[in-house]
Amino acid sequence: MGSSYLILMLTITTAVASPVNNQIHFLTPHSGSADHKHPYLDCLSWRVAVEANNLRDWTHIPESCVDYVGHYMLGKQYRKDCDIVAAEAYKYAKGLNISGDGKDVWVFDIDETTLSNIPYFARDDVAFGFVPMYWTKFSQWAEKNVAPAIPGSLKLYKKLVNLGFKIVFITGSREASRQPRIRNLKAVGYTQWMKLILRGDNDQSNAVAYKSGKRKEIEEAGYKIRGNMSDQWSDLLGNNPGDRTFKMPDPMYYVA
Question: CA-based, 20 to 30 A from 213: which of 5, 10, 75, 88?
């Protein structure tokens, strides 16, 4: 990989060692934008295809796009893209007629939706997913409770609570990681919720089936899912998706 990626890896070292806070570190000036002269033009097209769910079932970032994804995730453009999703979600939410009966629910995913794992994926032994078997170390890193909040999502969360929504987190993390997940969420500002749903340790269903089933349980209990936000299409498709879904950007990995 090029010299820019080496600089990126050296810079991220400081961020990984930082304590948990509510900010994503701005480590490079790159925005992730491109024009007809930009060397990452094809990678921009790849990222758009990923976000539109036109490109599916991919297992890792193409080698030629690793630098591009790194600069995008660590630069200003990713933050702006998250912020516009959160702003549109709030615009929609505040226009709803909340019943006041405590049955209006907003569903959040966790990883790359409310918490950011950028410090992990930018490590030189992970390389934004290009290094094989990068998931083997992820659970160990997640248990350290150092994932920062995605700022736009945290602001949205607080506004939704003030509007009277009941918050439900549904994550693909296993039940065994419940306490680390709770500690991390509370440490960065997600301090209250109605439910925190984790995947059973023996659950082998795919993401669509798992999350659809959990959303069905919520609605069968008499709640109304008014909004549903995640970084993965598999969390937003299937049955009982809610009244409206919001897709957060994530070109780092794909969950089928």
Answer: 88
β partners of residue 224 = 104
From CA 226, how far away is CA 166, in angstroms rounded?
10
- Tens of pLDDT along 146-198? 999 999 999 999 999 999 999 999 999 999 999 999 999 999 999 999 999 99
Cα distances (angstroms) measured from residue 106 to each of 180, 199, 228, 242: 22, 19, 6, 9
Distance CA 231, CA 241 (A): 14
Residue 20 DSSP code? P
Phi, psi of 109 (to 5 degrees): -75, 175
Q: What CA–CA distance (Å, rounded) separates 140 from 113?
A: 20
* β-pair partners for 105: 166, 225
**What domains does the chain contain, in order, with CATH numbers?**
3-247 (3.40.50.1000)
Asked whether the beta carbons of 32 and 222 are under 8 A apart, the reply is no
Which of 120-124, 163-167, 223-227 comes out lowest in average pLDDT? Answer: 120-124
